[in-house]
Write a structure and sequence with these properties.
The chain is mainly β and 103 residues long. It is built from one helix and seven strands. It has a single domain, classed as PH-domain like, CATH 2.30.29.
Length: 103
């Protein structure tokens, strides 16, 4: 028996930026069973990450970045909090996330 934790099955992973409309934090966004995880690139060995349980997600939508390019992904939770991500292919992540939410 190994002392290593079990590996989580990543359904989708891509480079992303957590964005507040002004500042961007680079990292990786993952769609895992039961949650979305954003791991900042500047803190790879730390415990710092953003985890959003799929059971808390109320809305998933795209948005325009600087009113020019539709590279934004909005994830809004049932408690009113919202996280905005910039991705190269937000539509692929949105489709996979919506599919996971229907399960």
């Amino acid at each position: 028996m190994s002392g290593a934790p079990p590996q989580e099955e990543t359904r989708l992973m891509m480079d992303a930026w957590l964005w507040n409309g002004r500042l961007r934090l680079p990292g990786v966004i993952q769609l895992l069973p039961g949650l979305i995880r954003f791991q900042p690139a500047d803190f790879p060995a730390s415990h710092l990450s953003l985890e959003i349980p799929l059971s808390e997600v109320e809305e998933v939508d795209s948005f325009l970045v600087f009113k020019i390019s539709r590279l934004g992904l909005l994830v809004r939770s049932r408690d009113g909090r919202a996280d905005r991500f910039i991705l190269e292919d937000p539509e692929a992540f949105r489709k996979a996330l919506n599919q996971a939410l229907r399960r």
